């Protein structure tokens, strides 16, 4: 655990400023919880109106304590909150948890107060949790600096799961759902407004707890991704899966998040890319976190996505197959031997291919599961198993089914999930430790999640190459013109169409002679980024005279528009089989971001693109391209050859290194279209726009 | 209820062929169930080995009965099944339910036996249910000609829901889930292999039961859509919602369905279109059917999709807003007055805009719900209400919250859904009759479903216009060539680009003179439907000489290819702002089907299209276009004007009447591209391909 946070998660002493004898008050709960969960350190209630609180001596003030506590829990509200924090800082308290609301989430005035508290804390080397938080709870150490009602509703039990959440409500909900599934939870921490300590930093601390085998996060904004990245890196090293909710996916949700924890909006596709980049699996709500937990704790790390579906209902075979496809799982193709072995166990009208319908004959032969499962167990085509029991009851030996399934799972070591909505059926399977779900959608969703997450965590991770030294033209600001943009990219190895920037009609004619027909002639002005909308692009230019005339016409038009006349470009025509786009920008939170997708003039409207955070490999670009709606075109349609994905991927990787190498001087890069040819024919950029950062900074990422 | 099926659903007498004294055997269950559920007709067990069965006199044979029973339940298997059905038919039994498996679902031999049974039944005017079925159950009349174990597991209660299913397992599962929610169910019918009576026909019968207020279907194939359409039409008339599962959505699922009930595959997008066309809502599984049932039974028919989200947790406000967007619901914009009224009830740091965060202050003020709800009740901006309570417990007066919510729902008459995963919270809300769900995804999913389904059921329904008399050229077969295809469509009012079919270079030059530059020149051969792949299309032809030369070149190339040389087309160039496609085909099950979507050469690969069943209105086409991935282009991008959706919709409507008017002589129509201009500029078809039906039939749809 990181040393800085030890004082909060494993404090030797805890002061409660505003302590109460009533265990249902915020100032009473933590004392009650610490007693109940065996906290071994010193507990110091502070309340000048009392001699004793819940069996502990009560103190009049922080100054009256016999020692400086590691952790102070500030329960008092209003003006007293800031005063208490100031006193903690002055006394040398290591960590303070501030419960009160009414700070950054309410507007500028509250934010100012919040900043003031943090400034005082930082100046004294004290860490601050909250404000506007439900607090911290470590059931390993018994240090419960929080007041969640849920710990009364659902009795805690120490276990291998850590929860770190901006929202107290969501930490309590995840905790309650996990406990309801019989799973133990060690850490339940809420960060509230994150004035100082963020989910990322606490996640880092919890990921270092060797007892934790699954880490669940809830975030409303990501302000400091580097801590979260560090947590994820450490988690991957020790094979600790992280499942995160990032709420505020929608515009309405982001607005609500701003009122809730004063959160700033993140661009949601970039959040997705960030999580993918760091091997974090994203879900929508605590239900999705809780329902997958048991599967992770079993240590399932499937090799692939090929599934065998088994049911006693033909309809459930059908729906299981449908749900497998919904979840991107493939039905395993069982070998001829496996099918023969299965068929020998089943009645004649049953189906021995996958999905395997053992039919209602299960009613008369309770041994069917036990007969059929071993027959498929050894087939190497199967990565995952799913047993769907939509109907059973009187006459069915469900206990035997459950024992057979458990023996099967133990023998294969492969994931086995069961769907059964009747408690009389689900219960016996659960009792055998089988991952059991109410329906095929959830069961297959979890299997697909574990398979996908395993692949994500194990994916080879690209390292930053030596970054190029990217220099903008002297005095550049705003947009570079097209010629400068293309030249900059070409310098760093991006393939661009041959072109010349011409300053006169004569130069245009000479350029045409050098470049040949058909040529493209286009005006070049940093002030006209969208040339074609102004009629400043001519395609298919066939003669040197045309080139000269176009120079005159475009030059005159730029003059009439009153924009910078940087010249006229004469360029070679380059066609591909499809137009793509590659873009890059500096995200204010996440730094360099690369976008690759369908190109052309409708990019903004259709948004068929994938987001990647550098560094990434060519393979990752190729995988990302597979998520596009135009992905079927990559393989070639109607007899066309496949596209040169490798060449496009090279460009995307290079653009990532260029924007990173610019070290803050480039705000964005937009290559559109990138003409991609058939495999082996390469890709070439025919238009580019580089945007300089407003105030060039010297930082790096 | 349709008379034909009355003998099965309300029989005056029931014979059980293969009756048993053991209530856990298939031949014992129905007798037990009929006694238990007060069946008033005569029950005739047939079993030659017994004198009495479950208190009824047992008969040696059908012939020995004192009367011909309305309904015979055939429980005997193997060879005896067919013999029993033959005897029933011979004796004049009105309906027979055949339980045994081993017929159409096993292959050609079983299918032959099945056909034989149906033929005998039909010849005698007897209706057949099954084979391979779990049977029928009407808890209104007590006539239970089925053996589902689920009726023992979960005690029946008559109620307003009907279930009709191909699968016995799925009917039992839907039944069990509904009963588990405390809802009463009247009809639970399974059709199995549907040798004679289908889900559609039974649905029609059940839709005529005036007590039924919600109808749930499970289908693995739709062989006779007209019965289902009739059921849906009657249901719409009496405002009876139908929620259907059509399993076998995936290739794997369709294969499994074929093994299960011998089902033939339906094209899944056409199934979607069929359901939409008839106002049937499609879901994936019985859980989705059951979870929405209460909302329908409340009679919710919301006017719109604008929702108010209220929670005691800021995070749940955020996630509620996200889930609203996931489900296509809009956050209602509350009036200034409403917000002021809400704000006056809440603590200062709470949020009075939508979503409304009443905060953890609810803990100290249990009246907050009751205070806030009336403040929003009268805002006309709200169609739907959602209360999200992720955490409550000791100290919260949940009973009061539930009472306040129920009073609110009663006062507004508008849908109110609650999400609460803690049983201690959900219970009191459920007890007040509030629709309560475990999480925001399900709650908002159901609200969105009811809103969407209401709109679908209430949508004005297009009527067939007088169909045109569509005549193919004499002797036409296979594909018509492009000129004939375009001419046929133009005759029926589809706008096509001006063109001439030329038989000589001289004709081509004259055509160019008439049509003007730039022209398009393309080879015309019924045997070369994809001309451009063979280099047989020239765009931008500028001179009459070029047109003549192209004639010679294309004619020579067709000769070299050895294909029919129907001539060379000289056509006017027509451009639009976007290329669309309109297609039509005769589906073997559903009849005429129209497809409209993104055009160009990648249509097959990208499949960005919508399916419509005629007759449909221009408005329905416009709505369907909104579901395309390219929908954002309809409004115009980057300053472009919106597209002429009306003109495109006109073409789609016309194509639907043309293929219907062809009365089976046209197999398919493919218009691609259809050039669509800016609003008011129209749309024009520049290429067309009409395919003749293999053996022209004279039928109509």
Automatic annotation (TrEMBL), chains A, B:
InterPro entries registered for this protein in UniProt: ATP-grasp (IPR011761), ATP_grasp_subdomain_1 (IPR013815), CoA-bd (IPR003781), Ligase_CoA_dom (IPR043938), NAD(P)-bd_dom_sf (IPR036291), Succ_CoA_lig_flav_dom (IPR032875), Succinyl-CoA_synth-like (IPR016102)
Domain ATP-grasp: from-to ranges: 486-523
Source organism, top-level taxon: Bacteria
Matches recorded under Pfam families: ATP-grasp_5, CoA_binding_2, Ligase_CoA_2, Succ_CoA_lig
Keywords: ATP-binding, Ligase, Nucleotide-binding
Molecular functions (GO terms): acetate-CoA ligase (ADP-forming) activity; ATP binding; metal ion binding
Coiled coil: none
PANTHER family in the cross-refs: BLL6376 PROTEIN, COA BINDING DOMAIN CONTAINING PROTEIN
Protein's recorded name: Acetate--CoA ligase family protein
